[in-house]
Amino acid sequence: MGRRKDFESQDYIKDCIKRFYEKIRVDENGCWLWIGCTNEKYGCLRFKNTNIYAHRFCFEYIRKEKIGDKFVCHTCDRPLCVNPDHLFLGTHNDNMTDATSKRRHAYGEKHYQKKIREDDIKEICKLVKCGLSQTEISKIFDIEQTNISAIVLEKNWKYSDREKYDIDILIRCMIMIFGELKTYQLLSLYEKIKE
Question: What is the pLDDT of residue 160?
């Protein structure tokens, strides 16, 4: 029967660190790319009789910082990178904020639940500026009114290349909806209220 390993011994830790360094390739960007086993996204390393992520091992045993229940995030946005200088600790929220700010998540037309396209967003914004109610627009596009509201408030489709409309376009929209006489009356009323 073989001898059991002492997972807490310095010899065991040193051996794991040696195996870690044998499984990296440094690229031109300074990333230490993991060339060992992966789970198809992150590098994996056998440690203390279990598989752990290589970037988490690096943070705790190469960088020598405790992780606890935090996430180890990548500044370089390369999941296979295990360079300790490219790693930082954060919460789940920090990780999601980082992904959102770098546009690494599915959004807009790329999102699996999308029902509308980029061109539809522009059209929705036009219709809102022309005076159609959100409920009417939601029926046209067969989506919930709350989705129209989220688009208008830029809570959804934040990255959409929205067109900005000047007063001339708004007036032309009003004429199409209300007719020339009603538009003139509305603009006159607007001018009176503004004074």
Answer: 47
Tally the domains of the chain: 2
Q: What is the structure's pLDDT at 158?
A: 53
**Which residues, listed in sequence order, are joined to residue 44 by a DSSP beta bridge?**
53
- Cβ neighbors of 157 (< 8 A, separation 6 or more) are 107, 108, 118, 121, 151
Return the pLDDT at 1. Answer: 44
Range of the domain at 150: 110-194
Tokens of 69: 């229940």
User: Can you tell me whether residue 117 is helix, strand or coil?
Assistant: coil
**Residue 174 lies inside a defined structural domain of this protein:** yes
Contact 74, 61 (CB under 8 A): no
pTM of the entire predicted model: 0.51
Q: Provide the pLDDT for residue 195.
A: 60
Do 125 and 142 reside in the same domain of the chain? Answer: yes
DSSP string, 49-84: TEEEEHHHHIIIIIS----TT-EEEESS--TTB--G
* pLDDT under 70: residue ranges of the chain: 1-7, 99-115, 155-169, 194-195
Which residues have a Cβ under 8 Å from the Cβ of 36 and sit 6 or more positions away? 23, 43, 44, 45, 54
Residue 89, judged by CB atoms within 10 A of its CB (0-12, 13-18, 19+), counts as middle
Q: CA angle at residue 109 from 136 to 151, to 5 degrees? A: 40
Q: Distance between CA atoms of 74 and 86, rounded to whole angstroms?
A: 6
